[in-house]
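DATA SHEET
Item: assembly model
Revision: 1
Owner: S.N.
Input lines:
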Amino acid sequence: MDQISESKIIGVATRRVDGPLKVSGAAMYASDHHFPGLLYAWPVCATIAKGSIANLDSAQAEKMTGVVAVYHRANIGKLYRVPPAAGMSLILDEKRPPFEDDEIRYYGQYVAVVVANTVEQARAAAESVKVTYNRDKPDANSKLLGSPLTTDKPEEKSKRGDTATALKSAKVKVDEVYTTPVETHNPIELHASVAVYDGQKFTLYETSQAVVNHRDVLAQMLGVPPEQVQVITRFLGSGFGGKLWPWPQSALAAACARNLNRPVKLVVSRQMMFQNVGHRPAIEQRIQLAAEPDGKLTAVQQDYVNHTSMLDDYDEGCGEITPFIYSTQNLLVTGGLARRNVGNPTAMRGPGAVPGLFALESAMDELAVSLKMDPVQFRLKNEPEMDESLNIPFSSRHMKECLTVGAEKFGWSNRTPQIGSMKKDGVTLGWGVAACSWLAARSETQASVELRQDGSARVACGTQDIGGGTYTVLAQIVSHETGIPVSKIDVVLGDSALPSGPISGGSWVTASVTPAVLEAAQKASQALLLVAVKSDGSSFKGKKPEDLELADGMVRQKGQAQGAVPMAEVLQIAKVNSVSGQGKSEGTLEDSKPKYSFHSYGAQFVEIGWQPEIARLRINRVVTVIDAGRIMNPRPARNQIEGAVVMGIGMALFEETMYDSRSGAPINNNLADYVMAVNADTPQIEVTFLDYPDYNLNALGVRGVGEIGLAGVAAAITSAVYHATGIRVRDLPVRIEDLLPMPKVNIA
Amino acid sequence: MELFQLVTAKTIPDAVKAQAQSATAQNGADVRFIAGGTNLVDYMKLNVERPRQLVDINGLPLDKIERTSEGGLKIGALARNADVAQDATVKEQYAVLSQALLAGASPQLRNMATTAGNLLQKTRCVYYRDTASACNKRQPGSGCSAIGGYNRMLAILGTSEHCIATNPSDQNVALMALEAVVHIEGKNGQRAVPVSEFYLLPGSTPERETVLQPGDLITHITLSKPVVGAKSGYLKLRDRASYEFALASAAIVMKKDGDRITYVRVAMGGVGTRPWRALEAEKVLMGKAATEANFRAAAEAALHGARPQSQNGFKVELAKRCLVHTMGQVSQIA
């Protein structure tokens, strides 16, 4: 593959091109869209988690001021199921269309929707719809290992060697169960759908991390051809995976608009965010590790079970990283799903890897303790030469350097391993470390680039910027290829009518768009050179296009600054408004026989402060070293890692969606009772990028940084907690009560 | 939220008269005073509070913080939490109150929330907030979902079989330790109620939280002249570093003569169904040396009657450590 190592803009810290729009409030988020005659929809949510609707009485609600309609199973109109997903299309987690039957399978399931002139009227009327239920006892039990699964036995995810024998004969072993609770995404921007229907075409303003897939799904659900649906997400107030796939409110808003022939806005409430739009599932993982006394791993086994909903199969994939992160002859990963009366789980930042690495890296720390080995040295000792699960080389792996550079920056050599042995200003310190990894990939992408007579360029791709800096990345790629400054490049994203782009998931947008946008920019440049050699009045008329180039925004003889003509002038002389080029790149995801193992790597070093006298645990500092290929734009990249680390602190210490065991309701369904890290919890965070280009992935050697920063953080924290307190917390989050010498259950 | 009427009270008697139309001043009141609105409006949105009328009292002249002729402090009902917390006299002479206020909520909320509103702050019990759940406080006789449910945050002192909801305020814990007096104007004129008598235990009527009667308007609170030489402090323990209700908190006022404790007031938050004054702890400490052992004995006494639930047993030990640590901190400056 081509390698582009020199660039004036790639790798240069560049301000976000969409920054001014965001800070001035001009950026239009889904729910900002307003249209004449717009109506507001408010769903009615089931107040049971299992059972069926006995009666639904909307008579009173229908009479209320401003109410236009109340829809439910009998009158919502046809909503179809979607055929099974094919590649990156037709994906959705909750496959049952809303109101399809009268059965209730999770708390908060939509049973009706009220449409009214104002949102207050719609909400008040929704609260007046009287629903009676046949109530069954729900199952939201978080005990998962040993539960009945959706399959006869756990599915084998990865296997090599003879793990059972190796574990049996092991000299040093760890065998523990780790649990992670339900986590709710909670981006500040609520999920929202604004549906406009003109009698034939639907224009849907959505909170979507994947507008093209959203279009395909909604076209199926509504029973219309894809060209009659357009999905627009210009800006997203983040999603963390929760907005990857369509949720039922989108179909409801579209169906209401279809029924009424008027625009309809439906904004999900914060309470509904805990019920109706996915979550990271509850997970239990048993990890068994075996090693020789010298620290060489001999066996790794991971058995996980995650909960899923009653109708759909969401697999968290906790074993994604396990097969290749360390060298071991014997390995087995199994996974299973257990049904519960919960809304469907979905991907949350770093799905699989993040909870999987909490368990694996915690177990690695426990084994290091048993071996009396330094946890950094222990990991270095088990560094693999190749991806042992696929028997292929790593494309670009610098895990060892992440660990050694991190150790150096953190001051790890000053660590004394004895529990509670490190103190500063009367506070007990705990130091912990964890390794991390996340996949690198490309997804099939199309893009177009236009070069215009006014000297500007336009790049368009049907992907989205969910806050990570994608707008700026596309501008940088075009700027690199054409020399046109970033400030003169319009980036158009977030519209399913644009050339089909990647989902904003998997941290693969940057890697995916790079080849397609480069190709589109090259083709646009070639088109420009053709104009230059064919136009009357052009100083290049009659020359061969292959002898010319577009550099620094000027057309010139290859390598000659003299005689260069600005792009705008070339087009003006030719009386041509613009030239354009299309680019298309294949994905790596569908590659059944990959030549390389593509992943990013990192190391997390954490210092916690522990004050037993007041049972106060705080994170003092975090050092993160990331090997994620060449860093396209260090500013938002650092921002991604820092944000992920803060999210990791929340995962380790605070976040847990509590289901009431009797009602099945997620009961702490608001931002006060669902505790996340706040600014005051944010420690000093030092981020280092190793910045080794991965040219096997694309010509710029870029991968992605959206998720890896979260992986490993929780394990590094619980290992640090162990170092300070001697208490190993295997059930997240770490609570004050875990660290007090008190019985956890003490019923009055 | 249900439709309601908003009226503006021009005078205190106006306000009293308007609220006196309500059958109760407690949970379920159909006429409510509104000041900062930081608590009431939330609960109206959730349909937990469904007043038919709101009486806006923000125009009443009740926002002053001023010295009393006896050398104490008078804090108007409408004085904003942020203003009280930053008041020079409060910071210097009633430090525990300033610290408690700053430990609560967020700057934005403190800018709006008022002294009297904070006195009447509702519990944060998740079942009280959820109209689909049984809750004796919200709907008398419906049952208590918290007992046997999610009760990690809830009370271990002053509970009953009908209610275990925690009083969530920080301010009120400090007011307990400062022995504040609540001044009320009602249908039958003015009266003064010590804050220790202002709150009711839930017993079999958890919907009744205070002694307020229909028409009662809190006009101000008073703090008596500071005890010469006494020092005070507040410590709040919680999961995250900010913007969370207390798991346990302590407000201590203490004076020493040499090493001997000659004056002490002990109050706790996050553990009681009302802001909790620990008279037993004070008895243990009075006249004793300010030692960790005595602090521990006082803390044991304070938590003697604790009745933990399925998830909050840790609060017993946490509250003790909170008390011991705060007593130690205050004793060092006293």
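QC remark: Confidence is low (pLDDT under 50) at residues 743-748 of chain A.
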